[in-house]
Amino acid sequence: MRRCLWLLVFLCGIGTAQAAQPKTVLVLGDSLSAAHNIPVESGWVYLLDARLGKMVPKWTAINASISGETSLSGRNRLAALLGKYHPSVLVLELGANDGLQGLPLPALRDNLKAMLDMAQQTKTRVLLVGIELPVNYGPQYRDGLRAIYADLARDRHTALVPFLLDGIALDPALMQDDGLHPVASAEPRVLDTVWKQLQPLLH
To answer: Is residue 98 among the annotated active site residues?
Structure first.
């Protein structure tokens, strides 16, 4: 009888421990998500992790973002990341470096589509985060880039942030001298932009 009671308590303890494990949001992005040239604790992903930690039940954010990351290098890394962290949600923020390098748009679309497929095959919900390029890249390329995110989100039924730096990119006071990355004080606004579309995926 005592052995049965001990076993019951043991199994209940395992169930409680498993239930207490926080779910994970995996962020795969480039320098815009890697706190480029600002303190790590000021970056929007760090701020996201702090916000998620206050939820009940708790969530946690894993930042797998690397400055200079392209859609191809992200595609090559994603399978291992999914296998390691088993995220419930993937925030996919890639394409800025592809655009700045003038990568043909079909190649970018193919890489993003492959990553969406990888995530969805593991039952991971996805938030696709779009970017915009400076106006000197011309309307044809900029419009085509914008359409890739919108079309993939529609076709793959994923949530979408059309532009990560919406309301920030055109304000010099909120951008670093390179004109591409937000200053630390703008990162909470970046998080708010992401949060609007991410929050429904957490429930």
So the answer is: no
